[in-house]
């Protein structure tokens, strides 16, 4: 009983990377119904902008896409794009071009969302109908890009109101969601969205681990208010709140395990159009918190962490001449962080580790100069000086240059070369991402300097045969410094004094690879093939000087094939096949008893690989009613059609034995209704 309890605690608190539990080895990706959702290079902007690195995804049609457990998910669809990966089946994290997931900033109208996961990470927190589009920047960032090493994913809320459409909703087998626009006059409107779960109704038997029944629920709420007092002004106020509750019951002993986490994000943006300039201002507040409580007759554990930020960003875009543009502005952010508070008490141990509130101020200036020399060539020069002020009186400063060159031999073909330096003061560590809010955030200080990187990329985009086919390709290289990874484990947290800084590895990293995506945009059968070849290496002197290891999300090959056909006005079918390399893990070697405690020994950090992952999904959508302003239909999807047993974790079960754990080793059907009227 005690062994199983410790395993559950390890999964809940650590998600696993002390290597007892290993990150899921899969890529969960949504199908794409290309009639309803369009993936395009952002060519509507000027060629002097970073159009090659920007993807604009229309998510209005996600309600009719093939779904997992009856639910659409913009983040899962994003993970089908080359250069964007996931760490496992039970995680909705975004890993762009080999960077850690916290290196990518994800925001709603400028307000960051720090942990956007539901249902053990199987899908994200976003209600598709509430948003108009999703903009994704993978590389080639301008100086206006926030202080992050990876990419940026921006959810753009709906603000345009069609009075003939009043309600947009989806009812699946684990939850229901609804979006309602409300007209407040000719100049303003309000969008309200809500989602709530009833997971245990049909899928309760799947939420069972070693006899432990998992009880789970979640809610999401979105609100967006838009106001246009004049033709030149637009005000948008956006708010989001999401909450998850998870409980574990073994139905035999008196064990009570509870996990709660929540996100809150609010923002206000104001845009004003001058004759030859545009002024943009955004103010935000965002917060994330989690709690873990474990109570057993001989053991009590309480753990929590918190992160909040508030800030303002303002910039002006000025057309200097018809082929020249200047973008300049400033950004200030203040972070509030309690990295990790941990209290444990048992028969043979007591450990209290309570960390106080940490604060950090971040101030950045930025300027971009864009010059379109001719219709064949343009360039961008940027500079982003920043200073970070710690709560102990210390500070850190950086000057991050950016430069991009674009060559346009033809209006349908674009070649771009980019170089840039980036800094980041927000870190995330703890233990691997097992789909729970188990990792903790912490800020740079005198001990942990900001992470930083310099990168270079070469990207090509092109359309062929009257836009029937599209090809995008990119090679990239990124050198990272002061990257962090944790070696802490559940036994240290339980039995010894725990200090999150003492369990951190600080070292270097190197990401490089190739991203390819081929799309068929027209014809009876549409779809795309996405392939990512990537390396993500890390070097930590504490492990062995000069020794290079794989990052925990390093998955060498990732292939996704998506096909879709509109059989008739009412019927559409889709299929997706995923083939991915195994994620790395630290192999458990043996265990022994020392001074009454069980001690585990492991092999080389992240040297072993999980088995090859592969999966086939199928789906069909049927419109019962399909009119201009009225839609009602059903979607049936089959996840993991041939029930392949893809390993989720590898855990030690005895002194000399390990066990492969799978959560989704069976075919999982889903059924949902979607409506719009």
* Distance between the amino and carboxyl termini: 54 Å
At CATH level 3, the topology is Maltoporin, Chain A
Please give the largest β-sheet. Answer: 22 strands, antiparallel, barrel
Number of domains: 1
> Structural class of the helix and strand makeup?
mainly beta
Could you list the spans in which at least 5 consecutive residues all have pLDDT below 50?
1-52
Task: Provide the gyration radius in Å.
Answer: 25 Å
Q: What's the tally of helices? A: 4
Q: How would you sum up the global shape?
A: globular
- What's the CATH H-level superfamily name? TonB-dependent receptor, beta-barrel domain
Q: What is the helical fraction, as a range of percent?
A: under 10%
Specify the CATH class: Mainly Beta
Count all strands and give the number.
43
Please name the CATH architecture.
Beta Barrel
How confident is the prediction overall: mean pLDDT?
79
**Strand percentage, roughly?**
over 45%
Please provide a written account of the structure.
With 677 residues, the chain is mostly beta strands. It has four helices and 43 strands. The strands form eight sheets. It has a 22-stranded antiparallel β-barrel. Strands 1-2-9-10-5-6 form a six-stranded mixed β-sheet, with no helix packed on it. A two-stranded antiparallel ribbon has the order 3-4. Strand 41 and strand 42 (657-661) form a beta hairpin. It is globular and about 75 Å long. The termini are far apart. The model is unreliable at 1-52 (pLDDT under 50).
